[in-house]
């Protein structure tokens, strides 16, 4: 998987959030799924360094930086073309450098590989917010064309020409492919730099996090023959979160109006069974009968375009399993809870109960399903609302509760209905546990990270409803475009900063 | 299902808790399962009244009282043979009355059916504890031979000869069978009383609770032609709980030593994946290598022989779905939470994923299973403990998390392993949500009710471990022999009390 290949694994945008109108972005937008945001591929593949990998139970997430002297020609970027010249670097050029210039500029020497040349991203001596621990720096190079770059650049001490964070994913079961990918990154880097592979390796460090950083340490280290640093998973998640939430339009959420308009009664009693094709919502307050579907304008989520500091908050990282981490206003964090009913549970159950063989197939099934054929609703038990307790008849009393009665004949239940029911069950449960912890620690903001959500409307909706339901609207579920890469971004960031060259 | 038949549905003991040695009990003990406690069947089937039914999503639970002038001849009962003579009743006799005496004693007249004759249980003018609402009375007739009877009898104003609460269960899907059963109870009662069915019906009232009390109201009312009173489900659960927890040996729990001895490390870090045949516990502190199994003496649960008032507490009622109800010290209650991941979910999933066709088969499968083949453990991700967070390698990181990787081929996973994994998943989750609510409301005692547990060791163990794990030992999971009948007992009790004869 070379970076220049038409990507298969990269299904998320680079750290530069391009405006949708940019020709650069349009070139790469895939059809249909929420994951197909514009991908900024640098015009010029520079040597890479600073590779980070987050190896979880199911997926290995890779992040690496590539430099591009020419930012993409999108309107927003042109308007805010970078400025500022670090004293000990060659000037950024707005025309593509020739090979020899590039080689000279990028010449690696171990002692300066972090500070000189084009291989390191911007280093801030002055963190963007005082809440950041001292060894975390901002990456302004990512912020070409965005509001972030403007604000951060004002504080720069040193900066480099723009570049991109690139993202790749592999199945942990195929960890060798991941290792080989990184190997090829390093080899290509040596080639472009005009140095030997041995020389290149001296300057490359892999920041590894997640459980697999420990489990596969020898594999990475012995195969790649580079330094591998193991970083704590929770720490990396939080660093990644703190960083990523500063990027405009990274964070998004369902608006209150959206949640309101799809609730069955139109009242503040929100359905936790979420929207579904068979559940016609009441006519919305504006008179329009709205239906949830993957890409209707009415259901566009709201993006956080002007991010403000997002702490304190609760991070709910949904991978194979789920970790809940509270983050204080000063950036201190603590893993306060978890649940084993996570993505791995849902995928595992659906792989046995439906013909689906991939996550996306399972989610596609769920979009067409009606959970009321397999779930036992309050109305099924009571014949009506349980009004004394405020339980609407459409609320789910028992997930999958209708299945056992029907004699256990699997053929009676469609994969679509089964998928929707279990998606709701897992999502509602995570939402409930998230809410309880947010309430316990008095946190209003609840971020959902991890590879589980994948921009899927029903999942986002269910989590949003659950938080709103339990909190009576006082708390908000927030989602991230780069949800699956928090740990790897955080690990990558930990490689940057003053005083990093300790032995 | 006539009460005198060798019972099929009655799988729990009568409200008289017989000592295990009593010949009466031994006659009826079934093999193998925890549910087979001694069943006290009255020597003499008296006319019944005061029938209560709790119709839930899956099961309809029936409770009815029968009088027996001769308590069973068990040692403990003989020693505490009843005393006290109500002023307006015939004296209790220790020899079986002849037919005509019985008929005379039991003659029904509408105005006195509650106060005279043998059809009503004991009524206390002075509740056992001041925390009871005024209209709830104790049933001392149940307490033949038990400590409860001794204590309550001292406070009696009126009492009747002993009798029993009888229990029956039906599938809600076969609600007609339940109705027919009650019909036959009433017919038999009329017969024994020597009255017409129409006359009998005037004196019979059915107290109905659960969702089905509303859904099936007409069915009960029109078929049986008796008064049917609908009672709130939550109220009945709590009344039943308050009553039942006073009976000696009703409440039981896993001792701390038991929990300690089966934890993997023998330390205070308790495994939440519970014991399993493939998980050999470390040698216990006493040097004995203990293994969990259904009936070893070492794993006998601890019974609460001297119950003290049990409020405040949290009741977790696990039926098809789960309700969590907090009960204050003064008996006031509030349903504070719930989850749709309950018994219905587990049975539904296992009915599709295994060959099992009954709950008991599913539980039997789970006893032989090893969840580590389908669950992703912390050790699978990390290769070791995640010691920084105190997460042992044997802890479950992702339930069912190994299933998706293996290509989705269902045949690779045994029904035993699948059953154990999902039993743990559902139980651990309920335990976690229960703990969080107990913590929120500062409650130490957590009672588990509902038909889910069925005295199954792995389930009890998992719930106990989960509470202990999350609470660090400060809270306790408590279980009830009559777990599934709280609502029906509560409904039944609501029929008793001064001033009940309002129109």
From TrEMBL, chains A, B:
<dbReference type="GO" id="GO:0004594">
    <property type="term" value="F:pantothenate kinase activity"/>
</dbReference>
<feature type="compositionally biased region" description="Polar residues">
    <location>
        <begin position="82"/>
        <end position="98"/>
    </location>
</feature>
<keyword id="KW-0418">Kinase</keyword>
<keyword id="KW-0173">Coenzyme A biosynthesis</keyword>
<dbReference type="GO" id="GO:0005829">
    <property type="term" value="C:cytosol"/>
</dbReference>
<feature type="region of interest" description="Disordered">
    <location>
        <begin position="69"/>
        <end position="116"/>
    </location>
</feature>
<dbReference type="InterPro" id="IPR043129">
    <property type="entry name" value="ATPase_NBD"/>
</dbReference>
<keyword id="KW-0547">Nucleotide-binding</keyword>
<dbReference type="GO" id="GO:0005524">
    <property type="term" value="F:ATP binding"/>
</dbReference>
<dbReference type="Pfam" id="PF03630">
    <property type="entry name" value="Fumble"/>
</dbReference>
<dbReference type="InterPro" id="IPR004567">
    <property type="entry name" value="Type_II_PanK"/>
</dbReference>
<dbReference type="GO" id="GO:0015937">
    <property type="term" value="P:coenzyme A biosynthetic process"/>
</dbReference>
<protein>
    <submittedName>
        <fullName>Pantothenate kinase</fullName>
    </submittedName>
</protein>
<keyword id="KW-0808">Transferase</keyword>
<keyword id="KW-0067">ATP-binding</keyword>
<dbReference type="GO" id="GO:0005634">
    <property type="term" value="C:nucleus"/>
</dbReference>
